[in-house]
From TrEMBL:
It comes from Sphingomonas baiyangensis. This is UPF0301 protein FBR43_06275. It holds the Pfam family DUF179. Gene3D superfamilies: VC0467-like. One of its GO terms (cellular component) is cytosol.
Length: 186
């Protein structure tokens, strides 16, 4: 999927009461969104008990010099597939630029580069992704469910996963505790 305009390079924040427990308090870094569909990486939650060291170990990559950071829950689609969101100062065979804001890589070469210190200056690792078919996300955006925010890369690289959802709403000037989770009837 080509990294095209629309919501690419922005964040989707799950509204309170979205109705799908997999996306409760979700923060999705949108990497591609065009007429064919959309792809984003969840950055609002980590996978308990799984770290970068565990992932490197599964590929027999020595990474003792790398911080043993948590791995993020990227989304429910292909949860065994790994992705790295990173600064655009590194590029590999499959790296795509995401609206000039960050980059996305999904092959083992980035893990090797991170482990040996030649990788991007900032990064986070995720398993799985959030994906939408043709027109699906556009339809969801017209209903109560998602808020898109054009926050800076500090939301990815300087904010903890646990704080990203609230920080994303703060970027938009919204207190999420003041949002209704449903609508009444008159």
């Amino acid at each position: 999927m080509d990294a095209s305009p629309f919501l690419t390079g922005q964040y989707l924040l799950a509204m309170p009461g979205i109705g799908d427990p997999r996306f409760s308090r979700a923060v999705i870094a949108m990497c591609a969104h065009d007429e064919n569909g959309a792809l984003g990486i969840g950055v609002g939650a980590t996978i308990e008990g799984l770290t970068l060291g565990d992932v490197l170990g599964q590929f027999d990559i020595e990474g003792a010099a790398v911080a043993d950071t948590p791995v993020h829950f990227g989304g429910p689609v292909e949860p065994q597939r790994g992705f790295v969101l990173h600064t655009p100062d590194w590029g590999g065979q499959d790296t795509i630029d995401v609206a000039g804001r960050w980059a996305l890589s999904g092959t083992i070469d980035i893990l090797r580069a991170i482990a040996d210190g030649s990788g991007p200056s900032r990064w986070l690792v995720a398993l799985g992704y959030a994906g939408w078919g043709e027109g699906q996300l556009d339809a969801e955006m017209t209903k109560h469910g998602w808020l898109n925010v054009a926050a800076g890369t500090h939301l990815l690289f300087d904010t903890t996963a646990e704080a990203r959802w609230r920080a994303g709403f703060a970027e938009a000037g919204i207190d999420p505790t003041m949002l209704a989770t449903g609508a009444g009837t008159a």
